[in-house]
Amino acid sequence: MAPAEQDALAAREQLFHERVRECIICALLFASLYILCHFIITHFKKHTDFTAVHDDEDAAVNRIALGLCTFTLAVALGAVLLLPFSIISNEVLLSFPQNYYIQWLNGSLIHGLWNLVFLFSNLSLVFLMPFAYFFTESEGFAGSKKGIMARVYETSVVLLLLTLLVLGMVWVASAIVGNDAASRQSLYDLWEYYLPYLYSCISLFGVLLLLLCTPFGLSTMFTVTGKLLVKPRLLEDLDEQLSCTRLEEAAVSRRI
């Protein structure tokens, strides 16, 4: 084998090992986030009677919806922690550039995590969360055999109709605003244009909602904290308290 072919083979083998390592790290990170989110949701969710019945259809639907919501929360938590993780990994690499055991914190791993978070965010936003909501509300089509698959069919049909409705409304709005052939044809470019645009719009709405709800949350937090904590008595007048106590004692003695 020629030296050039050996170098190419070694480069492909190294690239393969890097991809496998990145897949393992991503799987471990997501599994940790999924377990954490599962404990968070099961801690705060309301108790229902059918969750205790493992063979019931409603319990199975509830478990499937719980899994989808846990997956979505794990993706959202990963999206929130991705920027701090990128900053910390960059600082660690700059501090220890020659350390062999932290070389896996490279740009390829961060780029892969960004791509996975973007993919799963769109998937959760467009399909998983609407499917979980419609799945819990579904009962199967009239006249069909009852069961989980009947609910899955109904949920899929409702989600498909909702998707067609949203796409139709977007197409009509794009045609009205643009009023040219390019604006109508741009709807076919769904993955490259509309999904990132939808993701950006919903992210902007979430930030605005956070800015709106943060003052109310802080005021509520300080109110609850003020009720739970004991106020300090450093500035109280002890002489006034003693005089009030003597007056109360005298009033009780007169009554006796």
TrEMBL record:
Q: How does it sit in the membrane?
A: Multi-pass membrane protein
Q: Which domain of life is it from?
A: Eukaryota
Molecular function (Gene Ontology), one example = transmembrane signaling receptor activity
Pfam families noted in UniProt: LMBR1
Q: Does the keyword Cell membrane apply?
A: yes
Spell out where the chain crosses the membrane.
24-44, 64-88, 108-136, 157-177, 197-224
Q: Which UniProt keywords apply?
A: Cell membrane, Endocytosis, Endoplasmic reticulum, Membrane, Receptor, Transmembrane, Transmembrane helix, Wnt signaling pathway
Localization terms from the record: Cell membrane; Endoplasmic reticulum membrane
Question: Which cellular components does GO assign to this protein?
Answer: endoplasmic reticulum membrane; plasma membrane
Q: What is an annotated GO biological process for this record, any one?
A: Wnt signaling pathway
The UniProt entry's sequence similarity note says: Belongs to the LIMR family.
Q: What is this protein called?
A: LMBRL protein
Per UniProt, what is the name of the gene that codes for the protein in this document? Lmbr1l_1
